[in-house]
Design goal:
EC 2.1.1.33, 7-stranded mixed beta sheet, alpha/beta, methyltransferase, Rossmann fold, tRNA processing, SAM-dependent_MTases_sf, S-adenosyl-L-methionine
Length: about 230
């Protein structure tokens, strides 16, 4: 009997590709504006070339439908934002928002975020990394799929510039505790919370409709912000 092939825990994907059905507007945006906003995972990445300028670079992993990313980019035109998302309709929705609002400081990768960080982003080049409401993989047998794990933090430490930050937010209490413990154990990162645990939602992170509805129902939301030492 042959031994089963062992899977490197660091290579376990934290997402499942959902096909979904794009709306007419999303399809039009995908067809018309792909080359304007989307970057090729096969090509080299140079921030100044991609954005046409030099500015602090913020990466958002898994931006969903892009509402929050578009709002942040519009409110902070002095920053460059790189959004990474595997859900194609979400990519289309974000491009639609960028076109409607004339937002020019966002570029997109429709690809696995870990591979983009590993292969495309220069070391010590990121001013910040955002991870808002990632899949909590709430069943215990699926916890190994959670993106915030030691191998991910090793990658973060390589890519963040000194003083750069990692900001995660979740509405799952168990995942919040798990992320807090994992982040706190990393010697390269420092919790910015004055109480040593969670932070108030900073003004730059928009309050989503889904989040606001949950808060009204008494659901909690936890923000964690750690800076690179």
């Amino acid at each position: 009997m042959t031994e089963s092939k062992k899977i490197d825990p660091a290579r376990i994907r934290s997402f499942i590709r959902r096909q979904g059905r794009a709306t007419v507007g999303q399809k039009q945006a995908l067809d018309s504006h792909w080359d304007k906003y989307c970057l090729s995972p096969q090509a080299d990445f140079a921030a100044e070339t991609a954005f046409g300028r030099k500015a602090p670079l913020i990466v958002e992993i898994g931006f969903g439908n892009g509402d929050s990313l578009a709002a942040m980019a519009e409110a902070n035109p002095d920053l460059n934002y790189l959004g990474i998302e595997v859900h194609r309709p979400g990519v289309g929705h974000l491009m639609m928002l960028l076109e409607q609002r004339g937002i020019s400081n966002v570029r997109i990768y429709h690809h696995d975020a870990i591979e983009i960080l590993e292969q495309k982003i220069p070391e010590h080049s990121l001013a910040g990394v955002h991870l808002f409401f990632p899949d909590p993989w709430h069943k215990r047998r699926h916890h190994k799929r959670r993106i915030v794990r030691p191998s991910f933090l090793m990658l973060l430490n390589k890519k963040l510039a000194p003083g750069g930050y990692f900001h995660a937010a979740t509405d799952w209490a168990d995942y919040a505790k798990d992320m807090l413990a994992t982040l706190s154990a990393d010697a390269g990162l420092k919790n910015t919370s004055p109480t040593g645990d969670y932070c108030p939602r900073p003004d730059y992170r928009p309050l989503t409709k889904f989040e606001n509805r949950g808060l009204k129902l008494g659901h909690g939301v936890w923000d964690l912000i750690f800076s690179k030492i």
